[in-house]
Amino acid sequence: MGLGKIYRNYLKNNLFMRLLLLFSLITVITIISFSYFMYHSMSQAALNRELDTQKKAMANVTNYLGDKYEAAQSILFGLYRDSSLSAGVSFMLQHPFQEYVQHGLEQYNLGGNSTWKDGLQYFKNRLEDDGDIRNLMLYSVDQQVLYVLSQDRQLRIASANAAHSYIPEAMALDNKSVSLPNVWLREAANQWDNHLYSIRSPINDKQTLKNIGQQVVYFSSDGIWKVLSADKKDLKGTILVLTPDGGVLFDSSDHFYGKPYPYMDQVNSLYENSDYKNGDYVTKLTQNKGDFIVVGIMPKEELGASSRRIGSTIFMISAICIFFAILLPSLVMMNVAKRTNLIIRFTRKVKQGDLTARIPDIREDELGQISRSFNDMIDELNQYIDRVYKADIKQKHTELSALQARVNPHFLYNTLEVIRMRAISQGAHDVGEMIYSLSALFRSFVQQKKIYTLKDELEACRLYLELFQIRYKDKFTYSIEWDRKLAHIRVLKLSLQPIIENYIVHGLRNDFTDNELQIRVKQVENFLHVQVKDNGKGIAADRLIVMEQSLHAEETEEGSFGLRSINQRLKLLYGSKYGIKLHSEPGVGTTVDVWLPMDDGRGVYDV
């Protein structure tokens, strides 16, 4: 299935599917982009955190070794502060050990100050005070003898004659730094542990300042782990303590003890900062006091493991976010699409003529409001159709009943014309005028005009009134007052004539000579107001109430087509605002107010 076919079948005519696809695409791109930046940021943060942890551990190692260097120097400082002790140690290093012991006994027997003889005891005590010291050695330049103290407080005296040993040559080198133990010293002390580093300091005679020997202290490298224990859980990579020539004083990975560090050239090329070498991050710290180098190495494999863990976590979270970011809008879209399709289905029902269709959606959101508006529209449409239909039927029924449609109009016109001519020939001119007015009136009723205006309705009223003015000569007068500008306004046929007929039949007083009927037409805002006022008999109050109630009662086919017919037709066609109002007082007269719309000839009906 090609992309074009997929588009035509699922996307072209499906707005919600296109919106969902667009939203999903934007969401996926946004989440992936955000995840990438999060991964990059968190990986860098993890790298910086691990490097900071390593730098902190390296700083602790540097401080620890500096403290050990100071501790080795403080042994001699303590010696120099005590003159008697310094004198005793000087005697021991400048004379054979037997003379030193003999001299000490003599001084004791003489009761002299024997503090000087505690020189060895002083060094033993300092060895015991520091648990990291494995050996403390004193070398005599004059005697070429090496005194070795071990952790078990045992003293070992090794000959260092230049003819049989390289110890004098090693001691002659000027070395005050932290270094690897010399192999000849190891052999003399019988100390072959690789996890050691050496700190050597010269011993001078306090009186003459002459160099009389060397102090050599062997510290265990394993003591460095004590300062790393706090960060051991989070510490990654390898920490090395190296001498300038590549000797390994400490190795946290335990790979390079006992052999030169193979990458010393690369270490020497680094500044005291982090750098990226061969995929590994390398950090270098140099301590001038002890002349040693602390190197931290963070392999790319360990960094990659952290990045992979972060990537896996971010991938899982992103996948879950994408899933829910697509699922939830999909459910919402499906619900909206379902409700929209329901609206479309019901609109098609109405299009096919089913005006009873109603959308069953009671929710208060936009689609619910559209559904209720649609239902209200159908209700109003039904009411409008019903109103216009009934108005049309009533209008036709009024016309047919008023004209008695069973009479042939042409036969009636011809017959009336014959009678009129006969009356004129006999001298009955008033009868001829009446017949002419009646004929014209019938003609206006029967004639079907496409547009029936106020002018047409008032002309019908005038013809009807002319008949009865001839009939009641000198007893009845009428007047019609209206603005000729309103002549074009469309009105219902027979909307005024039945009111005048009502007056002639029920309100005219035959025994009075001042009967008068007034018709006034004017515009009041958006209404056309027609007032028909007479000075006839009037209507009793109880009868007036009955008539007002009957105006709103349902009219039957056999009923009259008077006031009630006019009122109902106006309300059916135009609405409840329109219709007629009655005002009457017995003996004074009756006023009928008719309220019509200012249609101005633009109506949508033709009845």
Automatic annotation (TrEMBL):
Pfam family, one: HAMP
Residues of the HAMP domain: 334-386
Organism for this UniProt entry: Paenibacillus sp. SYP-B3998
Coiled-coil residue spans: none
This protein's GO CC annotations: plasma membrane
Cross-referenced PANTHER family: SENSOR HISTIDINE KINASE YPDA
Bilayer-spanning residue ranges: 20-39, 314-337
MF annotations from Gene Ontology: phosphorelay sensor kinase activity
PROSITE patterns, per database record: HAMP
Record's protein name: Sensor histidine kinase
Record's bilayer topology term: Multi-pass membrane protein
Sorted UniProt keywords: Cell membrane, Kinase, Membrane, Phosphoprotein, Transferase, Transmembrane, Transmembrane helix
UniProt entry tagged with the keyword Hydrolase: no
Subcellular location(s) per record: Cell membrane
InterPro entries: Bact_2-comp_sensor_kinase, HAMP_dom, HATPase_C_sf, HATPase_dom, Sig_transdc_His_kin_internal
UniProt-listed SUPFAM superfamilies: ATPase domain of HSP90 chaperone/DNA topoisomerase II/histidine kinase, HAMP domain-like
Highest taxon of the lineage: Bacteria
